[in-house]
Amino acid sequence: MRDDYEDVDETEEDLRNNDWFEKNYIGLMMEHPKEWIAVINCEVIATGTTQSELEENMEKIVKDREYSIYFVPGTPF
Q1: Phi-psi category of residue 21: left, alpha or beta, with phi > 0 → left and psi -120 to 50 → alpha
Q2: CB neighbour list of residue 74: distance below 8 Å, 6 or more residues apart
Q3: In sequence order, what E strands does the chain have?
Q4: Which of 63, 66, 70, 72 is nearest to 13 (CA)?
Q5: Which of 45, 61, 66, 75 is deepest in the core (most CB within 10 A)?
Q6: Helix-strand-coil percent breakdown of the chain, rounded to 5?
Q7: Class of residue 65 by CB neighbours under 10 A (exposed 0-12, middle 13-18, buried 19+)
Q8: Rounded Cα gap, residues 11 and 16, in angstroms
Q9: Phi/psi of residue 71, each to 5°?
């Protein structure tokens, strides 16, 4: 387990993104199977096949802006 994520405080935007992710989980599995996604304001901003690829993509897009990261598993069907 990575210790650097244990003390992260979630912002209001993080909580909204989490709620949005949960509500759109099935659709995201269809659109982004086995991908990492970055979300800002309940919108997918970038994707990557690895977390590091996603973070590199986001550095180019948003610089210092905070965003939420999720892994979307493949569909069970």
Answers
A1: alpha
A2: 29, 33, 34
A3: 35-40, 43-48, 68-72
A4: 66
A5: 45
A6: 45, 20, 35
A7: exposed
A8: 9
A9: -105, 130
